[in-house]
Specification:
Layout lengths: L9 E5 L4 H11 L4 E8 L6 H16 L1 H6 E8 L1 H6 L25 H16 L3 E3 L15 H15 L4 E3 L7 H23 L11 E2 L2 E2 L5 H18 L3
Parallel strand pairs: 1-2, 1-4, 2-3, 4-5
Antiparallel strand pairs: 6-7
Helix pairs in contact: 1-7, 2-7, 7-8
The protein binds zinc ion (ZN).
The site of zinc ion has 9 residues, from helix 8.
């Protein structure tokens, strides 16, 4: 994006322990001298995702010594207030379905806006003005806070409001889930793909009882469906020799 970060050598990655943010973390580790991670507990029902975070960080360090040297501290923030004020299928016992406003009931209003604002506040102290997130508007669930336009607007607001040249990097914005698997392979080969299958978590229901080709999950929630169809499309493209 237009602005040059003040310290382009340091990035702060929004890291949930899911597939997308793990690919973003690998993407950042391949690019920046120092990378730190930030995660949020907002009372999500798929808390198992948070339990994957430490494991994923450890495995990345074991498998990729170059990245281990660059990976700095993890920061976990308590945002349970967000869960308390929002009424969604991710923070309450509710059906995952399409709501009357045309958005899935998994939409948590303000989530990415708050996450990035907290990340910017932490980045201010840590000297990290590049914020990396897995937002994507290619084959997403229609969340308005995942759109590129929202990110560009927020980047400007954060830069103005904190008087620092923040950059929000979203490496997955214009690629589909199949291409996210391909990007993982490009960044870390088969080892990274295996790590994503075994150790990351995406399922909205927090279900890790069933192991599929593409990893663990209930297999039927929108997050599982996206992950599974992306995996199948990627594998089919590989089989076709593309
Ligand atoms: Zn699921």
């Amino acid at each position: 994006m237009a602005q040059t970060p003040q310290k382009p050598d340091k990035a702060l990655v929004l890291f949930s322990g899911g597939q997308d943010s793990t690919v973003c973390l690998a993407w950042a580790l391949a690019r920046y001298e120092k990378v730190e991670t930030i995660g949020f507990d907002y009372g999500q029902s798929h808390k198992v995702e948070l339990e994957c975070r430490e494991r994923v960080r450890e495995r990345l360090c074991e498998l990729f010594p170059d990245w281990a040297a660059r990976l700095g501290p993890d920061h976990m923030l308590d945002l349970t207030t967000l869960g308390a004020i929002s009424d969604t299928a991710l923070t309450r016992e509710a059906e995952i379905e399409m709501g009357e406003d045309g958005l899935p009931t998994t939409f948590v209003p303000g989530r990415n806006l708050l996450f990035l604002t907290y990340a910017a506040a932490l980045g201010y102290r840590r000297g990290a003005f590049t914020l990396v997130g897995g937002m994507c508007e290619t084959d997403y669930s229609g969340y308005p806070d995942c759109r590129d336009e929202t990110m560009r607007s927020l980047q400007q607001s954060l830069s103005l409001g904190m008087a620092k040249p923040y950059t929000i990097e979203t490496p997955l914005m214009w690629i589909d889930k199949a291409a996210t698997w391909a990007l993982a392979e490009e960044l870390g080969g088969k080892a990274l793909v295996e790590l994503i299958i075994e150790d990351t978590h995406t399922c909205y229901r927090g279900d890790r009882r069933q192991r599929h080709d593409w990893g663990y999950g209930c297999g039927t929630c929108p997050a599982c469906e996206l992950r599974a169809s992306g995996y199948e499309k990627w594998r089919a493209a590989q089989a076709a020799g593309r």
